[in-house]
Structures are given as structure tokens and as C-alpha cells.
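Page 42, continued from yesterday. The earlier attempt failed because a stray header line got pasted into the input along with the sequence. Redoing it now with the clean sequence only.
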Amino acid sequence: MKGLIPLHSYGSIILLAVSTSSVAGMWIEDRLIHPLLGKSREEERQLLASGLIIMGLLLALFGSRVFRFMQILFGFISAFHFGFYSLATFVQDNPTLWGVCVAMGVVGGAITFRFVKIARTIIGLVAGALFGFIGYITVLRFIPDGSNDPVLYLTITVSCIAGSVIGSRAADKFLVIFIAFVGAFGFAFGIDLLTGEEQLTLNNVKNTQLTLLGWGLIALWVFIGSLGTFLQFCGYKKIMQSRAVKKTQELANSSALLSRSPLISSLVPPTHTVKGRAGLSNLGNTCFMNASLQSLYALPNLRDVAIDIPSRPTSLYSMELSMLDVFSSVTKQLCNPVSNAINPSELRVILKKLEFNDGKQHDASEFLRKLINTMIDEVPKGERNIVKEIFGFQTAGIVRCDECQHQSVTKEDSIDLSLEIPSHLTSSTAIGAIVSLEQLINNFFKPIHLQGEDAYQCDACQKRTSARRTSHLASLPKCLILTLNRFRFDSVTLKKSKLMVEITISEKLVIGLENYILDSIIVHSGSSSDGGHYYAYSRLPVHSLEYGEERQWFCFDDRSVQSTTFESIQNSFHLLPLASVYTLLYSKQ
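This time it went through. C-alpha cells are written below.
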């Protein structure tokens, strides 16, 4: 068995993640097939080859569709094979060796399942070693003295390092390519085993030249890897899109809605583009960032500030730049787009600076809050803090003791107002319920009676007594951010469930003596706090010959940009319960 797998005797891990059949094949051969069925080594070879062909093809075509399973698979097989080839020389007792290797595999799988960064690195390492090996047998061995061990080791080492860096830092699309080509190699190598010529083994590389079969296997590897990449990027996406569109058509049952629905626009490319408006490329589960940036861009106060900031040379974009400088660059590119969808390098800088670059879906409100706070905190003390002037305000919490009437006032700086969904609504009763935004705001200011377990410890009378707590806005910001707390912890499922209550909104809002107008809306589409999709509605200026400059609503869904109306936006929330208002951004008039 050991001699059948290329490069393992040299400590490489090229085929570590081809499929579970490599591990299962070893175990079946040593513990079941050979002792129980008495099969010959040639028969065992054919069984292993069949397993590699089947599992390698599945991995090439479907691997990235079950990435969480891939994390465990790569970690388990990597650790298992490392243990097997490092301990086989020292541990002669076969059951002990197998037990230790399986234990190492379980630990490795658990580590890669828990830490996505490590899993991505290992996937890149495996793919890098594979590409280095293929490059060596097709190109480098034609170079004089290129078939010696140092050249082989150097080639694979360099490719492993490059693959690890790409896997850990690059976009998810590279992982799709890596997994597809690793699986394709398993498919081609299985065919190689069936023929018995071992064209893709190390012995062939060092002793003979590739035959026509060998070159055919290389071509087959490229074809299957490319086919798997294409299907997972295009074919499966189109299938899922068509299914989602059909389901939404049945739900909405309105052709007018379909042409404007944000849920549709998140699933299929737009049928038209909007001149002068640009979407943002999704870097892999970054819809939360794209929706937040498009919403901030819609705020006239912040947009004007960002545009007025002097531009920095492109070469200076690094972690040393302030967040406001980075946001300014993104704003200028959205203001003067060179294409319908832009992919500025600053997006990766934002994710890294805010520590949201783990490839996972995140809460848009948390991202938005951290982005604004970072822009505020980076301003040195004593200097004018423009971002704080735009978003900053104070809330005042007043508690009045029922016993001695003592009043305690606590003021707190804030940049957004969190509004609670009425407590009587649960994840099951919220569906179909309708609550107005004004009602949620009034509930925020409504007095709360503290008694029983929530009784107030009064500092004046030194008693634990009942009290009344009220909240006020001590000051009002230029731009008011309202976040709806839609996710509530469920004591039964022990998970956060989404309250899909419909919130009616209006373009104009009055708080105190101030009038506000709605500039943007962040929408969460889905039923879980752990996933779903974010997109944004923004009201931006447009020019017309008849009316001059006016403001029009647009739907920004990653790369897709579509014009819409506020009436259509309201209808979409009513007809599509999964698409819910999550964050609202208002500007003072």
C-alpha cells in the first residue's frame, strides 16, 4: 500500500485529502480484505483504485458544497497520514499504530473544524504540494539534473508555502479551485492504478519518462479540475438560483414584485444596470459589510466628509491608514465607478482592521457599529472629531425611587439606538404580526416599573425598593441609526431565533423637535441569526432635465444595483416575511 501512493514515502501530503477512501482503503486492506477475503495485492489495488476514482470525482464536483465537512476531512486525513508515516518505522505493533493514527486524525479534524484559518491553510498546503508535483513531472524533469531529490524537495516546498499563503489569505474562490483539482488528481490517480503503469508515482518520475497514457492522465486531471471548478462556480449556482426564483414566484405570485424584489436580486444577476451606480463584490460571506458600506454612502453628511478627504496614493493602502481614509477611498470609487461592480482592495483592509476577516457571516449591525466607533476612536484627543459629530449622541437613564423619590441620572454616549421588539411576541407568534416603527420608539421612552427581582437599590435611602426607570435622549445626532433587535435567545432550542414581525416604516420621522428623513435600510433575509443574507436600500441623488437633482431609491445587493421605489420596498416587506427591516439610517433635515 505504501508504495502505491506517490510521494508519501518522502513525507509529502499531496493525496491527504483526496477522499476518505485513502484511509478507509488502508484499513479495509489490512484488517478486512486481506485476512478475511484472501484477496491478492492486485485485487486490493483495484479496489483502492475504484474508491479513489469514485471519491475523487465526488470531491472534484461537490467538495466545496460541503465545506464544513471538507474542514474535518482535510484535518483528519492530514493528521492520520502524518502519524502513519512518521510512526510506522518506530511502532511495529499494527493495532497500536492504527489506534494512535486514528486518535491523531480525530484531533486534527477537531482542530480544523474549530479553526477555519487552519483548515484553509491545510487545504492550500495540500493543493500547493499537488500543483508542485504536477509541475515537477511535466516541466522540471526536462531540465538537466532536474530529476534529483533536492530539486524535487525545493519545488514542492515552494509550492506548499505558496499554497498555504493563498489558502489562508485569498478569497474563497481559490479554495473551490484547490478542492476541485485535489479531487481531480484522486480521480486520475485511481485510473493510473487500474492501468498498472503508475505514471503518476514518484518511481516513474525518477526512472522513466511519461508515456502517452501519462500525458493523457495529466490532461484528464486538468479537464476534471476545470469542470469541477466551472460547475461549482456556475452550474450549481444557476440550479440553486432557478429553484429559489421558482419558490419566490410561488410566494409572491406577482410579476410586478418579481421585477423589483430584493430577494430575487440577491439570487440572480440584475436584468439591467443603473448608470452611475456600482455594487460591491462579495469576497465570501461579506454581504454584511457591503450592505453597511452602501448604507453609510447614502448619508449626505458622511459622504461629503469622505469625499473632501485628500486622496492617498494606492501604494499606501495598508493597515497603517486610518479607517476614515480607507472609507474615503471606497466612497470616491462608489461616487465615480469605473464598472457596474467594484472590488476595491480597501474592502480587505476594512475586514482585517475590524477583525471580520474569518470568512464567516457576521451581524451587519455589529459590523456597522464597530466601523463607526473605529473611525471615531482613531481621532486624537483635542482634534475635531467629525464622525462623532455626525453620529454621536447621549442617552439619559433616569431612575426615581418610589420610597424617597430620589432621582438618579446616568448619561451614556452612543452612536445607535437599539429598539426592542415587544416582549409578548415570540418566534412563532411574530409571524404575521405588524408593529410600527413609531411604536417601537415610544416603547423605548416608556417608563419601566422596577420591582420584585428587578427592584432598585437606592443609594439615598439605602433600601431595595421599587422604582421607575425612564430613558431620554439628552442630545440628538445629525444621522440617527436605529437597530431592531430581531434576534432573541430561545431557552428551548438554546439558539437565537429571529422575530419575523413586520415593521412598518415611513420616510419621515419626528423625534422631539427634530425632523429626520430616511436615507438607507439594511435588510436581513433569512430565518436564523447564524446565516441569511444582507442587502441595502439607499436613497441617492439623481439628475433629471425636468426636476434637476432629486433623490431616488436603489437596491444594493452585493454586485447587483436596481432602481426601485419606497412603495415597492414596503410591499416587499409585507409579501416576503423572511426579508426584514434590520437597521434604519436617518438624517436630520
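Notes: The chain has a mean pLDDT of 75.
Reminder to self: strip header lines before submitting.
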